[in-house]
Amino acid sequence: MCHVIVTCRSMLWTLLSIVVAFAELIAFMSADWLIGRAKPSGPEEADARTGGPQEPYRPTLGIYGRCTRISHLQLSRRDTLCGPYAENFSEIASGFWQATAIFLAMGIMILCTVAFVSVFTMCVQSIMKKSIFNVCGLLQGIAGLFLILGLILYPAGWGCQKAISYCGPYASAYKLGDCSLGWAFYTAIGGTVLTFICAVFSAQAEIATSSDKVQEEIEEGKNLICLL
């Protein structure tokens, strides 16, 4: 018989697992990993609202995507085009970024799988006599290691020709040059930290769903068990 068990700790772990998976996925897909050096607008470019010259813009560069201004749209407010610069995996600008993409993708796949499974932990608490929380916590720890490897390798690719075109000639491995880090990089770091927190917190979710109070509720014949 399926017992629906909901506790504060198990629900918090489930919600945090979903948030972490989405945060890492959004960061991976974003082009805002590097913010390039400012490019001044030409004297012929005017702001559509004020009629004055447009402010300098800063193009952004991601692992496989980029955002930049398109010249024939410069008189419009919507003058920035975002999309992948690499049509296939081999066209990613750096071998280090290719490795980063692989490690991040593997970590994100694991996190998305755990996030999907976590929704069903209210009904299923064990798999082959093993706690589903402990299994998911282990997978989250492995995913966190993949994410760390990807984030460590990413700055090694800052010396590639693509990054230099955005960040200037002084850009090199682990040196930003004229670029700055975008929100996607910081989101990926924050998501990695939260991944390990989830892995540790999964043990608390296991303790909460297998506590004496839960067992007492089961013995009383209750199918829906909600505990704070």
UniProtKB/TrEMBL annotation:
Q: Which residues cross the membrane?
A: 12-35, 96-120, 132-154, 183-203
Principal cellular location given in the protein's record = membrane
Gene3D superfamilies in the record: 1.20.140.150
Top-level taxon in the UniProt lineage:
Eukaryota
Q: Which InterPro entries match?
A: LHFPL
The answer, when asked if Transmembrane is one of the entry's keywords, is: yes
Q: Name one GO biological process term.
A: single fertilization
Entry's localization field: Membrane
Q: Which UniProt keywords apply?
A: Fertilization, Membrane, Transmembrane, Transmembrane helix
Q: How does it sit in the membrane?
A: Multi-pass membrane protein
Annotated Gene Ontology cellular component terms? membrane
Q: Which family does it belong to?
A: Belongs to the LHFP family.
Identification of the protein by name: LHPL2 protein
Q: Which organism is it from?
A: Acrocephalus arundinaceus
- Name the gene for this chain: Lhfpl2
